[in-house]
Amino acid sequence: MIAIVDYGAGNLNSVKKAFDYLGAEVLVTDQPETVATADKIVFPGVGHFSSLQALNRSGLREALLQAASAGKPLLGICLGMQWLFEGSEECAEVAGAGIFPGRCRQFPSSVKSPHVGWNSLRVQQGSRLLRGVAQDSFVYFTHSFHAPVVPGMTAASEYGLQFTAAVERGNIFGVQFHPEKSGEVGLSILKNFCEA
């Protein structure tokens, strides 16, 4: 069973519909106990980094970190991916998980923010999550802050600068874009996660 984490800031309906379409067994939950017993975890998110404070109050932060360290596949989407880093300039007092180094930063003033719409991926070799995704495939983004380029980056995108569009380390995966809104490419990525 795949748990889709509900902490009040997720794009839950679209994410659940995409997994339903793939025939996966999914459950939307705000219960740390359910997250702890799931086979895989999807951690979506839309909005301000401060909304991640809800994880601390609910016990979900601890459940997510324990599941990640136990080797369960975990997929962060958009804000959920940014949480995998140390934090964000958007809300400095809220700590990220620190699984990947660095902090998320605002796009440069030379480009319009937020970055909304379709953009291409520069896919790195060897990614399990992006297996079968063609170079320069287009996916759907909507975000004002971007993750830094780090070891573990499996895809980059460009918008005023190069930024991390996907990361991967062992059982931990993250995508800045919305696979649930990215057509066939997005569905293939979610299918890869189901098989991780």
Descriptive report:
This protein is of the alpha/beta class and 196 residues long. It has a single domain (2-194), classed as 3-Layer(aba) Sandwich (Rossmann fold). The protein is 25% helix and 29% strand. The chain has 6 helices and 13 strands. It has helices at residues 12-21, 32-37, 53-58, 60-69, 79-83, 183-194; strands at 2-5, 26-29, 40-43, 74-77, 87-88, 103-106, 115-120, 122-123, 138-143, 145-146, 153-158, 162-169, 172-175. The strands form 3 sheets. It has an 8-stranded mixed beta sheet, with helices on both faces. Strand 1, helix 1 (12-21) and strand 2 (26-29) form a beta-alpha-beta unit. The chain is globular, with a radius of gyration of 15 Å. The relative contact order is 0.17.
Q: What does this entry show, briefly?
A:
By secondary structure, this protein is of the alpha/beta class. It has helices spanning about 10-20, 30-35, 55-60, 60-70, 80-85, 185-195; strands at about 1-5, 25-30, 40-45, 75, 85-90, 105, 115-120, 120-125, 140-145, 145, 155-160, 160-170, 170-175. It has one domain (about 1-195): 3-Layer(aba) Sandwich (Rossmann fold).
- What fraction of residues sit in β-strands? 25-35%
The separation of the N and C termini measures 13 Å
Main-sheet strand order equals 2-1-3-4-13-12-11-8
Low-confidence stretches: none
Query: Could you say what the CATH topology is called?
Result: Rossmann fold
Helix content: 25-40%
Mean pLDDT: 96
Structural class: alpha/beta
> Main beta sheet: strand number and arrangement?
8 strands, mixed
User: In the CATH hierarchy, what is the class?
Assistant: Alpha Beta
| Total beta strands | 13
- SSE order, as H and E? EHEHEHHEHEEEEEEEEEH
Per CATH, the superfamily is Class I glutamine amidotransferase (GATase) domain
Shape designation: globular
Overall tally of domains: 1
Number of helices: 6
From the 3D coordinates, which CATH architecture would you assign? 3-Layer(aba) Sandwich
- Over the alpha carbons, how many angstroms does the gyration radius reach? 15 Å
